[in-house]
Each structure stands twice: as C-alpha cells, then as structure tokens.
Amino acid sequence: MTTVNNHDSTERPAKQPRPVRKLSKRLDVARQLHDLEQDSALDIVEIERLRVSVTRSLWLFLAIGSVFTTTGVQDFLAGHLTPADPVWWGCWGVEPCLVGILITVLRWEAAMIAREIEIDSKAVDWLKRFLLGSTLVMNVVPAILPREGGISAGMLAAHFMVPILVFFLAEVMPIVQARCTQARRAITLPTNTPTPDPAPAPAAAPAPVTVPAVVAEPTTPAPAPIAAPAAAPVAASIPDRWTDSTRDTTGEPAALDGLGIPSGMQTQIRRLVADLDRPVTAVDIQQATRLPASIASKVADRFTPATANGYTH
C-alpha cells in the first residue's frame, strides 16, 4: 500500500501575489518615513541645508561684485602706469584685501550675535565705514574724472551702487549664519534616558525551622516545638500609579495601538511615563513626541491613574 507524501504541500508557505508584495514594501517605506518625520532632528537637517544653500549663493554674488569693484580700485590706483610696472600688478590686490578684512570682521560679529553678545565698540563701526568709504571713493572718482572721454552716467551709477551692494551683501552673510545657528540651537531633542533595570524578584520565604523536642523525665512534659517567625512578604515592585484600569490582561501598560501611534513612539511614551514621578499630562506627551493635542490628551487619559481624579477612566 502506497502513501502520498504531502510534506512539501503542507509546509511550503503560499507565495503572495506581486501587487501585494509591492504594496507591502511601499507601506513599510511610508511607515519608516512617518517615524523619521516625527523626529526633531529633521528640523536641524533642514535648517543646515538652507544655510549652506543661501551661503553659497551669497558667496557667488559677493565674488562677482568684488571683481567689479576691484577693477575700479585698480584703475584709480594704477593711474597712467603700465603692466611693465610692478605697482600696476600690486594695485589688483588692494580691493581683495579690503573686502577680506570686511568679511572677517562681519563673521566675527555673526559669532557674537549667535551667542547674544552685544558689540558696542565704536572701533568696529568705524572700521566698517572706512572700508566701505575707501572702496566707494576709489570706484566713483575714476567715473567722475575719467582720463579719456566724457562722463558716462551708466558707469557712474554702477561704480556708485556696486560698492554699496557689496558692503551690505557682506554684512547680510554673517547675519544669515547667526540666525541659522540660533534656529538650530533652539531645537531641543528628546533625551534618551536609560531604562532602569527591573527590580529583583521577591525572595521566597524561608521554611519554618522546627526545634527537635527535648527528651525529659517522665514526670516533665516535653516542650512544644518552637517555630521561627516567617519572613515578611516582599512587595512586588510594581509602580503604584498603574491601576487595573490602565493595564491589559498581560499586566503591561495600556496598549496605544488603537491611536495610530508608531511603535517607536509608543516605547518613547512609556519610557517618559516610567521616568516621571507624577501622572503624565498631555503637555508632557506633546513636548516629548510632538503629537497633536487631541491624541496627546487621549494618551494622557490612558496613562492617568484611577485615583488621580477620584474616578476610574
């Protein structure tokens, strides 16, 4: 008699259809993205990306404006010199030097502004004004008193506006850096407090010790056995703020799955409740997880002891 072997057919799991597998992967990605978007560190990343992008653009336009002002300063200083004269080449380095000093001073100001340190020194203000005035004069004079030809209104306006634009552009850059730094430091990340070790299991009560009876004379009655006092029962190490109304059948805190909260955030909420020495509130939940007020209130209700308000939730 032959028997049919159905071992492979019974133990082999059924393969899911391809659309189901693709949709499951997309749902997994969506859940991971949702958990990441709830993290406060994402705001820090976005602020840093904005700071880098804006700073690069400002540097580009500042360099273009500095090239234009450098030609005006070189024309003013070189005069009738020719490239055969070394001074003619040295005049090209005057304006980059002035702009570099200006940017260095403004970067230092940005660091002080980010730390809320007031700069009340007149020397700093006069230094910036001197750098701006020097660049402005050396660009405007050649346009007003050209060596060849007449005055060009367009060149005069350009040599007047570009130095001022370069100055304000250089002053805005440190302010952008300082404000982005302040915004980044204003974001508080939730602290991951270590989970306390579980309390040791209660020790078993020792068995009563019986003293053997002493053999005495027939006329003397034997003493009754003396039993050692039983050890006091050890109280279970269960926080008194958990009540039967906030626990499920397994003895764990009330489940939060019905509120649509990710598992990682549920662990964070339970850790917050365990660390507090008082009933948790909706404000505590919002500060730790950034949940909406309505959901935070429901979470606080589930974790509120039954005796907190005098009635059972």
UniProtKB/TrEMBL annotation:
Q: For the region Disordered, what residue ranges are annotated?
A: 1-20, 241-262
Q: Which residue ranges run through the membrane?
A: 58-81, 87-106, 126-145, 151-176
Coiled-coil stretches = none
The answer to whether UniProt assigns keyword Transcription to this entry is no
Bias (Basic and acidic residues): 241-250
Q: Which UniProt keywords apply?
A: Membrane, Transmembrane, Transmembrane helix
Q: What is this protein called?
A: DUF2637 domain-containing protein
Question: Which species?
Answer: Micromonospora violae
